Amino acid sequence: MNAETILHAAIGVLQQRGRCTGDFLKSDGRVCQLGALAVAAGQPADLWRFLRDLDFEDLIPEDRVLVEAARILAKVEAPLQPVHEMSIERLVSLLGDCNDLASDTQVFTFLARAANVASIRARWRSAWRGAARLAEASA
Predict the structure, then answer these.
(1) What are phi and psi of 87, to 5 degrees?
(2) Whole-model pTM?
(3) 53 pLDDT above the threshold of 80
(4) Angle at 102 between CA 5 and CA 39, to 5 degrees
């Protein structure tokens, strides 16, 4: 699973479950945008309670992809913030605040834009790998 897939799937999670504010998950099944990202990645919505206390380097690969999806979303929602330098705790706090202040329409728009950014990044990454392999083969 990659960040683009998680971001796209989070839209479906929110459409199916409904969106909440103030917590990752409500008793009726509604989730915030962070909860939707976690569910889209096959994890419990409140996984962020655990992840927020860890350093990125200590995460397993699946959780790194989830945090990367969250960073892309945060960059779309708060473009002036240095999200790639933030601790996971600060990232969770930022996205929680954004979720609580945004309308449903804004959250869906941010997720769609973030999925598009992730798609573009994945294509660039793939193109660079291909170019590197060609350069290595011709050397």
Answers:
(1) -70, 160
(2) 0.88
(3) yes
(4) 30
